[in-house]
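quick q for whoever's on today - can somebody do inverse folding on this one?? i tried earlier but teh output was garbage lol. tokens:
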């Protein structure tokens, strides 16, 4: 039987500890308090503390930002305030700053992050951080995608959700997440469930054949085909272009007449 949160040696693992630095601590746990992550949180498989960056302000207005050097619109988070907030939680865990200027988050990075003791996540607001904070502290800039959010909090939740579901005991023995999209440099194959026929569309026959070897071959072929059509960048990155089916291959229609 799979025992939650236990190392291979049989010793009980330490919970994964997440510290979030934010101007809006009341946003947490938010969605991380429900479903898989929420259950894992209440079972102590991971812990979460949200600290208000504003509590490190030193003036009577409790200001955390100032106008951009060189002019321009918006405000910039002050490095002295942000450094004090980071120093208050720094203990060797990786420190990530949410910023569109960061390295894009990938599933490989998530696997790497979840193998450690936990994470410190710094959420930006306004125009973002004074760049000197990246020189002064071991802070890794991370982006969750090529679009602009109004703050880093949702990005921190995305990172934590991606990490927490991979913690031992969170998804249970039935799934380790190893077959999912991105794990092998491919999108996952498509799924179907009952009813067998719905609005004239039937589940592909191979999936109802009970022949596991044939099913595995079909799933791999669809994973390759869909990745080639939807995410050629993934194919390129993982050197998988040679696995692609001939260019004449077209996505299969699953209407009853075609299966
Ligand atoms: C309005 S954004 C600042 C955008 C910044 N001026 C720029 O153009 O790069 C405010 C904050 O939202 C967060 N944020 C916005 N988009 C993000 C993304 N794609 N990935 C990670 N964090 C993001 C960051 O913490 C950022 O400091």
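ok took a stab at it. sequence:
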């Amino acid at each position: 039987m799979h025992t939650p949160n236990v190392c291979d040696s049989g010793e009980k693992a330490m919970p994964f500890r997440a510290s979030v630095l934010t101007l809006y601590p009341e946003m947490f746990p938010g969605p991380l308090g429900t479903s898989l992550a929420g259950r894992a949180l209440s079972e102590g498989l991971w812990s979460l503390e949200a600290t208000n960056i504003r509590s490190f302000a030193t003036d009577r207005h409790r200001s955390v930002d100032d106008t951009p050097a060189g002019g321009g619109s918006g405000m910039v988070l002050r490095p002295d305030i942000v450094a004090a907030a980071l120093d208050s939680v720094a203990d060797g865990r990786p420190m990530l700053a949410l910023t569109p200027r960061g390295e894009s988050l990938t599933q490989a990075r998530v696997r790497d992050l979840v193998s450690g003791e936990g994470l410190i996540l710094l959420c930006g607001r306004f125009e973002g951080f004074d760049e000197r904070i990246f020189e002064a502290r071991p802070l890794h800039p991370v982006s969750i995608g090529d679009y602009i959010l109004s703050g880093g909090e949702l990005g921190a939740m995305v990172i934590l959700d991606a990490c927490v579901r991979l913690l031992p005991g969170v998804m249970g023995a039935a799934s380790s997440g190893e077959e999912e999209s991105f794990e092998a440099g491919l999108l996952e194959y498509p799924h179907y469930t009952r009813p067998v026929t719905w609005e004239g569309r039937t589940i592909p026959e191979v999936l109802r054949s009970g022949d596991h070897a044939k099913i595995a071959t079909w799933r791999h072929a669809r994973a390759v085909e869909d990745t080639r059509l939807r995410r050629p960048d993934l194919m390129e990155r993982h050197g998988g272009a040679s696995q692609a089916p001939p260019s004449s291959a077209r996505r299969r229609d699953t209407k009853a007449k075609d299966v």
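fwiw Confidence is low (pLDDT under 50) at residues 1-8, 241-259. also The chain has two domains: 16-164, 177-259. so keep that in mind when u check it
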